[in-house]
Amino acid sequence: MLKSVSQPRIVTLYGRGSARKLHSRLNVLVAAFLLSCLAYTFIFDSFNLPLGSACDTISKDLSKPRIDAGNSTLGFSSILALSVKPSWRSRGLLASAEYSGLDIQIPKQPFIAPELVEAFKNIPSKTGKQPSSGSAYAWLAHLDLIKHAVTNNMETVLIVEDDVDWDVNIKTQMQLISDNLRKLTDINNTDKSPYGQAWDVLWIGHCGEHTSVDTPRIEFSDATVPPRNTYTGWANKYMYNIDAGKRAIQIGVNPVCSFGYALTLKGAEKVLDWAGKGGNEAFDIRMLQGCQTKDLKCLVVNPEVMHHYQPPKELGYTSLVAESDGKGVAADEDKFEHVMGGTENIRESTRCKVLFDTTCVKEHRDYWFKQT
Ligand SMILES: *[C@@H]1O[C@H](CO)[C@@H](O)[C@H](O)[C@H]1NC(C)=O
Ligand SMILES: *[C@@H]1O[C@H](CO)[C@@H](O)[C@H](O)[C@H]1NC(C)=O
């Protein structure tokens, strides 16, 4: 069909007989151009020289870091999900992973005895803050998962919580993040990994982060960024410090919530050491503290590209952390699978796409810290 549409234009230029010939000639030309771009890229890459503009665009699209950032593990060695038991959370997660072409593993979590939770809660803390039972339990579960990554020698790992959600464009979002993270950390061109090794924690899923014009960062255009006036949460006012329609990769200042974070192997070992002995009110806050004291090298994507999905509160939704703290009982799971909830700050939720075939940006925030 397309051919017959384009032929008349060719006919007026070259006459009927040569239309087919021209097609094949054009194909050869395009192929030659692509090949020379590849060769050009290869030569210029080897000498670390900047590329010419026409080839630049093409070669960037074909570059290894970019391709890998869009692979089924988003350019990390593995994606691991923290999941205590099968539920609407993990079923929705796996359905979303399938929709997005992601490979997410859910390692079996070891049993955490209440005595261990109690002991962990009571470790003396320099900040004077200690976790609740629910937070201590979640904290220990994160540590177990990180140990799993270290034991398996994962060069990089993305850890997500099982109620996490992401945009249907997650792969292209991660490709942009890779491009700009490589710029921000000034990666040696011989390193073809999507994100390099110049960080301990790469925080892509959170519920808010500070940013100002003084924050070391790179802003980049991303059509999937939520409009600033729809960004919800405590960090809404900071969104106005980032140009409209742009996302930033920045140094970690005050990221909160551990919906999705990546670790380098060295970073994973550091987090085990830093967060293995308690020291604050929750795992994410302990990591945040490490970002601030520079015990951890943290990079943050702002606004986030992962955020947790929440079932409608009217159905009696209580988080697992709140349940462990005796603040209500997480309601029967089944009904959550049939009534749509929402996800803050994600324009095109994958969960809502795959489960309800619609979008579900959650506009009004249920105060996260009131609930947990
Ligand atoms: C995706 O890319 C990363 C980085 O190169 C690599 O470690 C990982 O194995 C790739 N994932 C798959 C499924 O090939
Ligand atoms: C880049 O890394 C290679 C291999 O590790 C090293 O030989 C080279 O000196 C590095 N180049 C720069 C500019 O740091």
What does this structure look like?
The chain is α/β, with parallel strands linked by helices and 372 residues long. The protein folds into 2 domains: 2-61; 78-308, Alpha-Beta Complex (Spore Coat Polysaccharide Biosynthesis Protein SpsA, Chain A), CATH 3.90.550. Helix content is 40%, strand content 13%. It is built from 13 helices and 11 strands. The protein has helices at 2-14, 19-46, 53-62, 64-69, 88-100, 114-121, 133-151, 170-184, 265-275, 283-293, 320-324, 350-356, 368-371, and strands at residues 78-82, 104-105, 156-161, 164-166, 201-205, 217-221, 246-251, 260-264, 298-302, 306-310, 342-343. The strands form 2 sheets. The protein has an 8-stranded mixed beta sheet with strand order 2-1-3-8-5-9-7-6, sandwiched between helices. Strands 4-10-11 form a 3-stranded antiparallel beta sheet, covered by helices on one side. The longest helix is centred in the N-terminal third of the chain and has 28 residues, at 19-46. The relative contact order is 0.13. Residues 1-20, 43-52 and 366-372 have low confidence and may be disordered. Bound molecules: 2-acetamido-2-deoxy-beta-D-glucopyranose (2 copies). Residues 188, 190 line the site of one 2-acetamido-2-deoxy-beta-D-glucopyranose. Keywords: Membrane, Transmembrane, Transmembrane helix.
